[in-house]
Every structure is written in C-alpha cells, then in structure tokens.
Amino acid sequence: MSANPRQVMIDSQLRPQGVNDRAILAAFAAIPREDYVPEGMKDVAYRDRSVPLGDGRFMIPAAALGAMLQALGKCDKKNALVVGPGADYAAALLDYLGYEVTALDGAKGDIAKGHKKGAPYDAILLLGAAEERPEELIKQLAEGGRIVMGRADRGVTRLAAGTKAGGAVALDDFADAQLPLVEEFARKPAFSF
Question: Does residue 192 fall inside a structural domain?
Fold first, then answer.
C-alpha cells in the first residue's frame, strides 16, 4: 500500500478532529497502519471507524488515537505503557515520537494488571473505553505522569485525560469518541433480585 491512504487519513480524519501536532502527524504518515491489522482487514485499515482484529477485539479509530496522543502533551521523560487492542500500532507511533514503550494487548494476558516491572510510567494510554476506573494502571503512573483513555458511561464513550498529582488522578473528559469497550475494564455484573 502506498503512503497515499495515510495522507488521506491525516487530512480527512485527524486534522478535522483538531489533531495538528506536526510530530504526531509525521508519526501517522510514517507508520503503515495496515501492518498492524489482520491480513483480511488490510483494505479497511484506514477507515474512520474501529477495525476488527478478531476475537471480539478492535483497533480504535485513527482520529481517536491521534487525539489521545495529542492529549499526552509534551513530557521530558518518555516512559510509556500502552494497554489494549492494537497496542503494537500505538506503540510504534509512540516509539517514532521518542518514547520508550511497553505494549500490552488483550490477547497477551491480563492487561488490567498493567506491567509493574516497567513502572512508574510517564504516560499511559488505554486504547478503548473503560467502564471501571483502571486503578492498577493508575498506581503504575509516575507522579506528574499523564493517563489518556476512553471512558464508557451508559453507552456513551468519551476520551478522558488526567495527570497524577499527590498520588491521585482526576480524569477530565475532553472529546466524544466512538470507542469499543475493552473487556478487561468492563463493569462487573452486580447481583440483583
């Protein structure tokens, strides 16, 4: 596939959503998204929706990922944890941006526990929507570090970000986004009569 689909994605999906950081746009232009989806999905790698990865897992839309990367802001230390389906693609983008990245995909273990060995992280991306607050991930975030994720509430998903201060993180929504729910962060069924 030529670089043309990547440029179309940048011009028609990322820029209209306010993703205008030159370094982030350069990363999207350089990294072939189609290399991170199953063989049968390569022709839809650049569509403006989530891309099926198999086993009920989905790679989030490029525009949402671009907004998440932009919400990380600039940080001097660049130790990042990426969690969720499609983590390898997001990790490649972060690597291009100069981060040292640990990537955890749902197919490779219990991602809700994070990766304590590499903690603390200056940046954490949760790729998809969570109904439950990812407390184990937040524990692995460095003081002053930033987490960006999707939040799901009664079927509505939004992008949210927060910075760890005094050991706590207050998440603030910053954009609506259609994101798939990450199963490991789904609300546990409550017993009821």
Answer: no
